[in-house]
């Protein structure tokens, strides 16, 4: 294993490429050779540094200094001053505010979000994701070694005691799910990592897979050991080309190091991981549709029960966990359940990664303790509204809730949100100002469900279309007050009669719209105006 004293990361996003990041990388290679620093300083290109107009960026650890925009001609001076003489080149530092405007979690390095408190994004943007050595040098595969010295039941107890809940949207207790699969009799079991991530606006799982793929392999191996599986799948959406590439590289490296495959760490435990590439259907993120898709069938949800924990892939007991859920596992095993409970709230321990989007000054990924409030997210991390005032936030992609200003101070954890009658969803936080029309927003969301419904069951197939048509009518000045009753009964029918979570949650925007913004909707009907001037009727 290579021990390095400094790490250089050069940004490798399309914008940086156009501005010469390859040349900068080459210049660093040459300078490190000339100064005899190749053994002490690692050099990588990473795509996760963000699209700043300060790009191409160069990030140097352990000081976490960000330089940018950098040209190849600047490199000799940076190597001489920073890496050879140990002096930071102040005049080449990237302006703080430009950076924080693009990558919220990167600005965490400067104090807003302490890096040491990150669990899921601990290594993202810090290690070279294509180097297993970098991962190992940052505690990688330690947790797998620790787990293999315990019994599967002991590993499951740690996860249960940690209080970790699934981050794929439903918040189901992870340790309990592991226990179900462990207790189901079967000579063949599977572990699946759900990396389909098709919720609009959510890209947290992509960043983990691109930035720290070994963490997911390690977590899946621990899960497989705990539940008694010897084969696993990572189901990655086809659009995530870089994530697919990096996961495949990581699997190959782990196999070469004996950390995946036969007799891991010389134990009796063997585990193989396959990558399955999805074809872009939102419904394939639903775990039973995902399983059908791996089996080579049309991606349609199964009727449940039975659940995947007993009858999953090819009818065998199967554990399905989300990427972010799994990314918590190595840290929990390394540091213990009590440590994990020091983060977040008593009922929802740990951190949550949110994709912050919309009318705010800073958009991007943040990893924050569970229990933070929306007001804090908007004012501290998103640096306030870009224009207008806060009207609502839509959580968790399309299947989340619409959170009005009156719930801005409700702690964002599974329990508190449930008590307030809303849901945390999977991690997107779309922040909308007072120029957003509630009817228009609901129409966009219902259109998404209408298009993505697999059509297997009637309440969802017909209900989403009918709701979309009614909302379109309201937005064109053709709505009636009876339409509002029909929207509420459509929500009830879809919730109670649909086969899967898509149909069951498709009516949530209708419910929230009428719960919190009824007057605005009625203005479209009674007064024939769209108060925000967005709907087509405003033009007439
Ligand atoms: C329509 C629909 C789409 C879903 N998409 C995803 C997804 O992209 N990623 C994911 O992890 N879970 C998704 N889920 C939830 C999964 O069915 C499942 O609950 C989750 O993968 C379990 O992992 P967890 O316990 O770690 O959260 C979706 C559910 C529904 C109903
Ligand atoms: S609820 Fe919708 S997406 Fe789910 S099975 Fe029925 S039609 Fe398909």
What is the average of the pLDDT values? 89
Q: Level of helix content?
A: 40-55%
Arrangement of strands in the largest sheet: 10-9-13-11-12
- The second-level CATH architecture of the largest domain is 3-Layer(aba) Sandwich
Q: Count of helical segments?
A: 23
Distance between the ends: 70 Å
Largest sheet: 5 strands, mixed
- How many strands appear in the DSSP assignment? 13
Task: Report on this structure.
This protein has helices at residues 14-18, 21-34, 75-84, 96-100, 104-107, 132-137, 142-148, 152-162, 174-183, 204-211, 213-227, 241-256, 287-294, 323-335, 337-341, 374-381, 414-419, 438-452, 458-475, 481-497, 501-506, 508-516, 518-527, and strands spanning 6-11, 41-46, 58-61, 65-67, 190-195, 231-237, 272-278, 318-322, 351-358, 364-369, 390-395, 402-404, 428-433. Strands 10-9-13-11-12 form a five-stranded mixed sheet. Helix 7 (142-148) packs across helix 14, helix 10 (204-211) packs parallel to helix 12 and helix 20 packs across helix 22. Mean pLDDT is 89; it is low at 97-114. It contains 23 helices and 13 strands. Strand 9 and strand 10 (364-369) form a beta hairpin. The structure holds flavin mononucleotide (FMN) and iron/sulfur cluster. The site of iron/sulfur cluster has 14 residues, from helix 19 and helix 21. Iron/sulfur cluster (SF4) binds at residues 283, 301, 453-457, 460-461, 498-500, 502-503.
């Amino acid at each position: 294993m290579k021990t390095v004293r400094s790490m250089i990361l050069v940004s490798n996003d399309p914008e940086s490429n156009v501005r010469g990041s390859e040349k900068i990388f080459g210049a660093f290679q040459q300078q490190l050779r000339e100064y005899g620093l190749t053994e002490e300083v690692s050099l990588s290109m990473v795509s996760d540094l963000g699209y700043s107009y300060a790009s191409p960026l160069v990030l140097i650890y352990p000081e976490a200094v960000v330089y940018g925009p950098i040209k190849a001609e600047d490199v000799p001076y940076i190597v001489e001053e920073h890496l050879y003489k140990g002096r930071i080149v102040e005049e080449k530092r990237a302006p703080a505010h430009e950076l924080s405007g693009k990558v919220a979690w990167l600005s965490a390095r400067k104090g807003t979000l302490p890096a040491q408190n990150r669990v899921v994004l601990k290594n993202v943007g810090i290690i070279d994701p294509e180097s297993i050595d970098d991962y190992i040098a940052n505690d990688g595969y330690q947790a797998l070694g620790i787990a293999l010295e315990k019994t599967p039941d002991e590993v499951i107890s740690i996860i249960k005691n940690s209080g970790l809940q699934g981050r794929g949207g439903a918040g189901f207790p992870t340790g309990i799910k592991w226990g179900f699969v462990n207790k189901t009799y079967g000579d063949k079991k599977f572990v699946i990592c759900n990396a389909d991530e098709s919720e609009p606006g959510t890209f947290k799982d992509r960043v983990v897979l691109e930035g720290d793929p070994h963490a997911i392999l390690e977590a899946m191996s621990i899960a497989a050991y705990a539940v008694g599986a010897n084969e696993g799948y990572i189901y990655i959406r086809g659009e995530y080309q870089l994530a697919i590439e990096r996961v495949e590289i990581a699997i190959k490296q782990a196999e070469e190091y004996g950390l995946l495959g036969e007799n891991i760490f010389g134990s009796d435990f063997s585990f193989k991981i396959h990558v399955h590439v999805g074809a872009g259907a939102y419904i394939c993120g639903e775990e039973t549709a995902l399983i059908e898709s791996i089996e080579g069938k049309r991606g349609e949800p199964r009727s449940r029960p039975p659940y995947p924990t007993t009858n999953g892939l090819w009818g065998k007991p199967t554990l399905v966990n989300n990427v972010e859920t799994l990314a918590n596992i190595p840290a929990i095993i390394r540091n213990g359940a009590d440590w994990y409970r020091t983060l977040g709230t008593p009922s929802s321990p740990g951190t949550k990664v949110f994709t912050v989007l919309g009318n705010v000054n800073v958009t991007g990924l943040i990893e924050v303790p569970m229990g933070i409030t929306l007001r804090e997210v908007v004012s501290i991390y998103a640096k306030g509204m870009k224009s207008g005032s806060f009207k609502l936030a839509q959580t968790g992609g399309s299947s989340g809730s619409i959170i009005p200003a009156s719930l801005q101070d409700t702690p964002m954890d599974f329990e508190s949100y449930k008590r307030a009658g809303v849901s945390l969803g999977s991690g997107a936080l779309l922040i909308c100002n007072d120029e957003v029309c509630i009817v228009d927003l609901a129409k966009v969301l219902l259109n998404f469900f209408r298009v993505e419904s697999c059509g297997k069951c009637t309440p969802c197939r017909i209900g989403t279309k009918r709701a979309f048509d009614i909302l379109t009518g309201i937005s064109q000045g053709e709505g009636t007050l009876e339409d509002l009753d029909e929207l509420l009964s459509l929500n009830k029918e879809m919730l109670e009669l649909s086969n899967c979570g898509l149909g069951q949650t498709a009516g949530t925007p209708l419910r929230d719209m009428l719960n919190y913004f009824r007057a605005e909707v009625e203005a479209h009907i009674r007064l024939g105006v769209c108060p925000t001037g967005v709907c087509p009727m405003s033009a007439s």
